[in-house]
Design a protein that fits this description.
The complex is a heterodimer of chains A (172) and B (741).
Chain A lengths: L1 E4 L2 E4 L8 H8 L18 E4 L2 E4 L12 E3 L12 H8 L9 H14 L5 H8 L9 H11 L13 E4 L9
Parallel strand pairs in A: 1-5
Antiparallel strand pairs in A: 1-2, 3-4, 3-5
Chain B lengths: L9 E6 L3 E6 L24 E5 L5 E5 L8 H13 L6 E5 L9 H9 L15 H10 L8 H29 L7 E3 L2 E4 L4 E4 L4 H5 L47 E7 L7 E3 L3 H4 L4 E6 L3 E6 L2 H10 L3 E2 L9 H18 L3 E6 L2 H7 L2 E9 L11 E7 L2 E6 L4 H12 L6 E5 L13 H13 L3 E4 L2 H6 L7 E9 L5 E9 L16 E7 L15 H18 L4 H7 L5 H14 L9 E10 L2 E12 L2 E12 L6 H20 L5 E2 L2 E2 L17 E7 L16 H13 L23
Parallel strand pairs in B: 4-5, 9-19, 17-18, 21-22, 25-28
Antiparallel strand pairs in B: 1-2, 2-3, 3-4, 6-7, 7-8, 9-12, 10-13, 11-12, 14-22, 15-20, 16-17, 16-19, 20-21, 23-24, 24-25, 26-27
Classes of the chains: A alpha+beta (172), B alpha+beta (741).
Bound molecules: FE2/S2 (inorganic) cluster (2 copies).
Chain lengths: 172, 741
């Protein structure tokens, strides 16, 4: 079968029932899309099919024939990183980083549908993506930033305050 | 490695291409006494090369720790670069390979297992540096929050300071000026009086030929330029475009994929499996039977997984076959009762006469707490890729303990450790799980049987069901209270003790304390889980303390303050968190606030949680955390670690439970081993207090405080005491209006 992936037509000779995830990772060598649970519970495998976020671990490869598939490798453009990727760097979002391809793909699908999501819309769109490192606060901030809402973050947002109660001289 | 100019603590030399290398090292020298048996080969040196300076002025930090997202590579490099006064934009990072030159595994294991005394020859020689360096080096293990504390505080900074001094000396000699007049700044050497100037790179070869200083001077806090700033983490760009390589992404020429089913009951072995049909399937390369597992090796992982799942392996019967979590809790109760009866409790702490005081106390508050087993559930399921070829073995994986991987795989295959090469990758979470080498060993055994390079990936189900678990623990308390409400005595008995030893101890000034434990082994494998014993004892002690405060009618924050009067660091952290959280602000009906304090891995953390009861379920809305880790090298990185530790602990508090049924783990995937999702994630504020105390850890100390803070907040909101985790197991029949009644 033929697959249109990141703007390229690629030929595949695999079991049509094979989940798209494994075709992408093993047969096409695009390892940015991750395996986390295999049962649509974690979102690590999220890709776009015709612009919609889908869980590739439960999507038979045959079902996407003739549709446009985008993976994390295709999220940016020739012009550079996607605004979300840029925001992800600025907000220092990834910790281990393993969930982040899926997070970014879900966030990108959200912004295509709703360019100015409020926090409830962000939570609703992102609740399918687990982050075991717990970077949800940073993800939320980065999505707001990419959506042009960075200046209106509530005052109670995470803040790093550094206090220096005594500045005694010390060695080591 | 070129020739070292001398033996000693700090070594230096010139490598090919005029690269100046400085390492903080221990070389055994004469191999005598206790050290000798621990060092394998003649001439073996325990050397860790920490900094390389090239003629092109590029500084490369060689880091002996793995990156699992905690920002350790960046933080350690900041420490090195600051002491070196390097140009930050010219600094590169390289993870040390798993070679014995970087650490001595036998010695390291001795430290970790506690079965080897620290050899005399490693006794502190310079301000205790020697011993610290030894520990950091030998334990090429990323865990115990020790990277920044040990490797950084000692190794990285010393290496940077030594290199800087040698560069200045080299320039001074060449320019014929006194060394104190040579200024080092941002990768350049300057002699202001004559206007001479050079890059570090220009003097790299000359510096490498010099004798390293015995004790270079380290900077004072007020001289830090790079430490203490939130520089962007170096590993992040590759983690937003899919290019970061995790163990699961390794690609090896000719490799096949393996999926596995492990014996459901720990300790059972494979007795038989009919593999005929599966072996004939197209794409299936081999069915491999192991002692306690069966694996299918196929052209793709999905094929392998489908095939292995269709097998009907038979397992041996074991004594544990009928065991359940409830039976294990009963066993704990029996072991604890027995220990009391026999007077055979093992003592953690005994101060004063707690039992005597309890016997005569005006009041005794008692409670029993317990927590279940927990899996790590790293986002990246466990995996390893192994290729074997005539006597040599290569392993690709993400490991918290690459050197251990090398030795354990070698031992499993019966080959020499030198023939095993470990390619370490980014880890999709570690949390302690990736310090175990069971999966790498299994991959190696499968690769050997299959005769091809194999990438073994555990399904999420195998990952949850064959972890090395945070143990289930029961903990009992008795507090003796005087007629005037003072707390006179504290007795605590629990089962199952691991590390760190101080985890169950309380910081509060209670005059009579007796903390003791008894072992009550189970068949469920133990493994370090983020913050190890603190994860349970933080909950037990801080929730029970709250109970005691309520029993004597005191505000839990005020009572803590009173009993910490002689502990200024604890007090400052507690006050900061309470102040930022607005502790004294009134709560709305149905809302509650809880506080907890925990010292772990050298850091002190106070946590305030705010919960709201929504439809009879607690919703954690806001968490305020104050942390004193001595000094925050990367404040934003420390904050990220706290946020992460809090969410990890919150998932455990709300949902985390591995239960045992018929000897096996019941849970299997994220639908029944739930993780907090974004719509349940509280806003987290982190406040950092740079007290100047010795540096503490960052990766783990955020975790212990959240469960008690939330449990205490739920009590505040509802009057319902949480003595068992997870919280999702509790029924709340609380109604908002009842509070006012
Ligand atoms: S791997 Fe697809 S949702 Fe988890
Ligand atoms: S960054 Fe590690 S799981 Fe999200």
């Amino acid at each position: 079968m033929e697959l249109l992936i990141n703007g390229q037509v690629r030929r595949l000779d695999v079991d049509p029932q094979m989940p798209l995830l494994w075709a992408i990772r093993e047969n096409l060598g695009l390892t940015g899309t991750k395996f986390g649970c295999g049962v649509a519970q974690c979102g690590a495998c999220t890709v776009h099919v015709d612009g919609k976020a889908v869980r590739s671990c439960v999507t038979p490869v045959a079902s996407v024939a003739g549709k446009a598939v985008t993976t994390i490798e295709g999220l940016g453009s020739d012009a550079g990183l996607h605004p979300l990727q840029q925001a992800w760097i600025e907000q220092q979002v990834p910790q281990c980083g393993y969930c982040q391809s899926g997070q970014l793909m879900s966030a990108a699908a959200l912004l295509m549908e709703n360019p100015a999501p409020d926090d409830a819309a962000i939570d609703a769109a992102m609740r399918g993506n687990l982050c075991r490192c717990g970077m949800y606060g940073r993800i939320r901030r980065a999505i707001r930033q990419a959506a042009g809402r960075s200046t209106e973050a509530p005052a109670s947002e995470p803040a790093v305050g550094v206090y220096e109660p005594r500045r005694e001289k010390r060695h080591g | 490695m070129g020739k070292w100019t001398r033996r000693g603590l700090i070594t230096a030399g010139v490598l090919a291409g005029g690269v100046f290398a400085v390492g903080v090292a221990i070389r055994p020298g004469r191999r005598q006494g206790e050290l000798a048996p621990l060092v394998a080969g003649e001439g073996e040196a325990m050397v860790n090369d920490w900094v390389l300076i090239g003629p092109d002025n590029v500084v490369t930090a060689v880091i002996p720790h793995s990156e699992m997202g905690q920002g350790v590579h960046t933080a350690l490099t900041q420490m090195l670069a600051d002491e070196l006064d390097a140009d930050w934009s010219m600094v590169r990072i390289r993870e040390a390979p798993a070679e014995d030159a970087y650490a001595n595994y036998a010695l390291g294991r001795g430290y970790i297992l506690g079965d080897t005394r620290v050899p005399k020859s490693l006794d502190p020689t310079i301000d205790g540096l020697f011993l610290q360096v030894g520990k950091a080096m030998h334990l090429q293990i990323t865990g115990g929050s020790n990277s920044v504390r040990n490797t950084g505080r000692v190794g990285m900074r010393v290496a940077g300071a030594a290199a800087r001094q040698m560069l200045r000396e080299a320039a001074a000699e060449a320019w014929g000026v006194p060394v104190q007049d040579v200024v080092a700044a941002a990768g350049r050497l300057l002699h202001p009086a004559t206007g001479r100037e050079a890059t570090y790179g220009q003097f790299a070869p000359a510096a490498g030929a010099r004798r390293p200083p015995v004790q270079p001077t380290l900077k004072r806090v007020d001289e830090f330029r790079i430490m203490g700033t939130s520089v962007p983490r170096r590993d992040i760009p590759a983690k937003v475009d899919g290019s970061a390589r995790f163990g699961i992404d390794a690609v090896v020429e000719g490799m096949k994929y393996a999926a596995v089913v492990n014996a459901p009951v720990f300790g059972a072995v494979l007795t038989s499996v009919d593999a005929d049909e599966v072996s004939r399937r197209p794409g299936v390369h081999a069915v491999v039977t192991l002692k306690d597992a069966v694996a299918v090796v196929a052209d793709g992982w999905w094929q392998a997984q489908q095939a292995v799942a269709s097998l009907r392996p038979q397992w041996s019967a074991t004594e544990a076959d009928s065991r359940s979590s409830e039976a294990l809790y009963k066993q704990f109760d029996a072991s604890m009762a027995q220990a009391l009866e026999d007077g055979r409790e093992e003592r953690d702490e005994q101060v004063g006469d707690a039992r005597g005081v309890l016997a005569n106390a005006a009041r005794v508050v008692e409670a029993t707490y317990r927590v279940p087993f927990l899996a790590h559930a790293c986002m990246e399921p466990m995996n390893a890729t192994v290729a074997l070829s005539d006597g040599a073995c290569e392993v690709w994986l993400g490991s918290q303990n690459p050197l251990g991987t090398k030795h354990d795989v070698a031992a499993a295959l019966g080959i020499a450790p030198e023939t095993v090469r470990v390619h370490n990758h980014y880890m999709g979470g570690g949390f302690g799980r990736r310090s175990q080498n069971d999966v790498a060993i299994q991959a190696a055994l499968i690769a050997r049987e299959a005769g091809v390079p194999v990438k073994l990936i555990w399904s999420r189900e195998e990952d949850i069901r064959h972890d090395h678990y945070r143990p289930a623990v029961t903990s009992r308390f008795r507090a003796g209270i005087a007629a005037d409400g003072r707390i006179l005595a504290w007795e605590n008995q629990f089962v199952d003790k691991h590390e760190p030893v101080e985890a169950p101890l309380i910081p509060y000034a209670v005059a009579n304390r007796f903390v003791h434990f008894t072992s009550s082994p189970t068949h469920v494998p133990f493994g370090p889980w983020r913050s190890v014993d603190h994860s349970q004892h933080g909950f037990f002690t801080e929730a029970f303390f709250d109970e005691v405060a309520a029993a004597v009618g005191r505000d839990p924050y005020e009572l803590r303050r009173e009993l910490l009067a002689d502990k200024p660091r604890h007090l400052a952290v507690l006050d900061l968190a309470a102040g930022k959280a607005g502790w004294t602000r009134p709560r709305e009906p149905g809302h509650g606030r809880g506080i907890a304090l925990q010292q772990s891995f050298g850091s002190i953390v106070a946590t305030v949680a705010e919960v709201a009861m929504v439809n009879n379920r607690p919703r954690v809305e806001r968490v305020v955390c104050a942390v004193d880790a001595g000094y925050a090298v990367t404040p934003d990185g420390l904050s990220a670690q706290m946020e992460s530790g809090i969410l990890y602990g919150l998932t455990a508090a709300l949902y985390g439970e591995i239960s045992i049924d018929n000897g096996a783990v019941l849970q299997s995937n994220f639908h029944d081993y739930r993780v907090v999702r974004m719509d349940e994630a509280p806003v987290i504020e982190v406040h950092i207090l740079n007290s100047g105390a010795p540096m503490g850890g960052g990766g783990e100390p955020g975790t212990p405080g959240i469960a008690p803070a939330v449990a205490n907040a739920i009590f505040d909101a509802t009057g319902h005491r949480i003595r068992e985790l997870p919280i999702s197991r509790h029924d709340f029949d609380y109604r908002v209006e009842e509070r006012e009644a």
